[in-house]
Amino acid sequence: IGTKLLKEKFNMTTSHFIIVDDTIPASRLVSMENEISNVKGVSSMLAYDMFVGTSIPDSIVPDDVIDIVKQNGRQVMLVNSIYEASTDECNSQVEEIENIIHKYTDGDHFGYITGEGALYKDLIETTKVDFTVTSAISIIAVFIVIAVVFKSLSIPFILVLSIEVAIWINQGISTIFGSAIPFIAPTVISCIQLGATVDYAILLTSRFKEELAKGQSRTAAMFKAANESVRSVFQSAMLFFFATFGVYLVCSISIVKSICAMLARGSIISALVIVFFVAPLLLLCEKLIAKTSRGWKSSDVKDEPITAFAVPPKKDEEFDEETSFTEFSFSDDDGEDE
To answer: Which ranges constitute the DSSP H helices of the chain?
Structure first.
């Protein structure tokens, strides 16, 4: 809420703090400050030399004022940015300001940038490798579990690939519509959506396997498996959706709202991918699955077209002229045959 108010009233969202040596000449600092002020996204900048000037010595400035910006041989400057921390725009801005600071401090003086934006940038760079490893471990773990359960080498590829497609679609929607994604969102979404929605695919695959074992054709087995699994898949997806969407509605923390919104959307996307992508893919790859799976009973029954509705009989049928009423016997009131 505070960040939103700063954005609306003062056009500032994130504040950077620049710490430099107090021994740097004032004229050089002023040049650096002017260059930083012209960086894209910088709304304002506060620095000692910008207000006092280079011609006024520190000896005539009250100590209380100097102590605010200068202590222990260091000087602090404040830079206000219109970008939110952890976004690509803010990270690029921090990097550009760092280059300017290094340009004016060289190797003879001390200078660096800190603050929320700089800390988030360092955190992203530090945890980038950790997040990649975490996602890889999650995928490998789910792959192994599915391979052991189905005793198959091909089924884990199909199911994990399907959920990953749903995850990519989920993240792609945010990119297409220009929504800001927290730096931890891709990893959190990948792990949670993979673990929570792979059950949908396992349910459908298990039902397909059971129907094949009963001797049904591939098409009939998938048709029945899909009919019996779709309701359970969408019930689970809707429970997951409402649980995460409720947090999105009531929470005021931007990172939590963003992650919950993506999780809610991801549950629906995963359910749709299972129904419209996994089912046809299992049917198409059934012969490959049978060859690479242990205990998978493939049916030899010829596939027949399946219609969702019975074909109604024709209303206008030709009258068979050879049919004779004399072929039927009628009884009179006395019970005698004519």
So the answer is: 2-10, 26-37, 48-52, 63-69, 88-105, 116-150, 154-176, 185-213, 218-250, 254-273, 279-284, 286-292
**What is the number of structural domains in the chain?**
2
In this prediction, residues 324-332 reach a mean pLDDT of: 42
In this prediction, residue 297 has a pLDDT band, given cuts at 50, 70 and 90, of confident
Task: Specify the range with the lowest mean pLDDT, choosing from 46-60, 273-287, 292-306.
Answer: 292-306
If asked whether residues 71 and 29 sit together in one domain, one would say yes
8 lies in some domain: yes
Residues 6+ apart with CB under 8 A from 233: 200, 203, 204, 271, 274, 275
Domain boundary among 104, 119, 134: 119
254/161: higher pLDDT: 161
Say if residue 282 is in the same domain as residue 165: yes
Collapsing DSSP states into helix, strand and coil, what is residue 78?
strand
What range does the domain containing 214 cover? 151-292
Both tokens of 171, joined, read 């993240």
Query: What's the CA gap between 171 and 181, in Å, rounded?
Result: 9
CA within 13 Å, CB half, 158 = 26
Q: Report yes or no on whether pTM surpasses 0.85.
A: no
